[in-house]
Design a protein that fits this description.
Strand order of the largest sheet: 1-2-3-6-7
Low-confidence stretches: 1-13
Number of strands: 7
Radius of gyration: 17 Å
Distance between the termini: 33 Å
Bound molecules: ligand GNR, nickel (II) ion
Largest sheet: 5 strands, antiparallel
Structural class: alpha+beta
Mean pLDDT: 93
Strand content: 25-35%
Order of helices and strands: HEEEEEEEHH
Shape: globular
Helix content: 25-40%
């Protein structure tokens, strides 16, 4: 992630808002399996939510985050595919929809901040066309390929309660789910 982002507390920030890192929900939290609601209007509360999501994503660090991962059941995702040392390139998509998928696929090792420390190969369409509303309330259509296309598909799945482990064999998926169910039980017993 862009190292400069972490120095931000000293840097004057837009609207002087404090950094607001939120808690990231992990499996088997039921909110990760729910369908998020469309956003009716891009207002100040949505801009604040987008900022909290970016703060949380950069801190994690991750290349994307969907609102349900912080318990906000709204159709908004954030991403930044810039490599370390590059200029940050935050992307915010509101009510995103994929209009077109390529026949060609690509296999990428995926991870998810809500399924920490687990990584598996997933095959997805290599190129997509996505339509969304941006933070200014403007409708945008853009094409994406490779890493960005994979990330957009991973994030949009979150808005429908879909996780990348759903694309694995049942054996592999069940193994992952059981591991996190067990961890949750142990954590509950300890508290
Ligand atoms: O940080 C993340 N890395 C990642 C790697 C490959 C494919 C998808 C992703 S998204 C993930 C962050 C996350 O969980 N977003 O929902
Ligand atoms: Ni994820």
């Amino acid at each position: 992630m862009p190292a400069t982002y972490h120095i931000e507390p000293e840097t004057p920030r837009k609207a002087d808002l404090p950094m607001a890192k939120r808690e990231i929900l992990v499996l088997p939290d039921a909110r990760l399996r729910a369908i998020a609601e469309p956003i009716a209007k891009v207002d100040e509360s949505i801009r604040k939510l987008a900022k909290d999501m970016l703060d949380t994503m950069y801190d994690a660090p991750g290349i994307g985050l969907a609102a349900p991962q912080i318990g906000e059941m709204k159709r908004i995702v954030v991403m930044d595919l810039a490599k370390e040392g590059e200029t940050p390139d935050p992307i915010v998509m509101i009510n995103p929809e994929i209009l077109k998928y390529s026949e060609e696929t690509v296999t990428t090792e995926e991870g998810c901040l809500s399924i920490p420390e687990i990584y598996y190969d997933v095959e997805r369409p290599a190129e997509i066309t996505v339509k969304y509303t941006d933070l200014d309330g403007k409708d945008v259509e853009r094409e994406a390929k490779d890493r960005l296309a994979v990330c957009i598909q991973h994030e949009l799945d979150h808005l429908d309660g879909v996780l990348y482990i759903d694309y694995l064999s049942r054996l592999k998926r069940d193994r992952v789910v059981k591991k996190f169910q067990k961890a949750e039980k142990l954590a509950k017993k300890a508290s």
